[in-house]
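Worked example

This section walks through a single chain of length 263. The input is the sequence exactly as stored; nothing has been trimmed or padded.
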Amino acid sequence: MSTRYNFNVFRSWATDIIRVFVMPATLAKPQAWRLAWLVGLLWSGGIMSRADTHYVSLDGDNTSPYTNGWASAATQIQWAMDQAIADDTVLVSNGTYTLTNQIEITNNLTVQSLNGTNFTFVNGNYPDYSNRCVFMLAGTLDGFTISNGYLAVDTTNYPNSHIYGSVGGAGIGTRGTVTIKNCYIHNNVISNATAGGGGGGIHNKYSYAVVSNCTIVNNTCGVGLATDIRGGGINGGAYSQLIIDSYHYCPVKNPCKYSCFSG
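Given that input, the structure is written out below as tokens.
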């Protein structure tokens, strides 16, 4: 006795792949179509939700969207992040990435170094440029040395210094739900901060931030334009939650107007 089958065709517009799903003809037509529709939806949804890895290397050839291995890598971290969407990973190879503007993580990405803080450096490039090193609205930053960021409210001499209110965080500024882990954050300076500002290393405002397994040393918060400038190393600003599981050290010289850590 032969068995009859119905053939149902689905096309994934994300990948331009066509698949045929075979259903026994013994199923009633409404049941067969519902089952085929459900299988097709799950299949195409799985394809569309696949996360990509975007590569960054100083030796890359800048072939957008930087997902075809190290040869296609972007030479700037921001370029790779501009091509990424939520849940993607930006993987950064060894080297020193010298900035002319702050790096901005605005999606729920993982920005991760390949070999950790001893090999991957983000340099804020002060005094040639004045900007914080990294600003985060979302996502995870993992395994970088962050240094030489400078933030000051002086838009005449330092035109980038007013970005996002310039409330603080010469190394890393956060607003949103973020994770900073396995980073070495040092030698970042904030000066002339606005009210409620501070955090030479990290500033956290309107944010839920987890700082895990980081070393935060020798960051400076100088005299501000207001009376409540705090946190040479870390400042937890207004309407924020800050969870810290990291080593934090204040140098003997004046690290801040008030304290090394404030929240």
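What to look for: Residues 94-262 form one domain.
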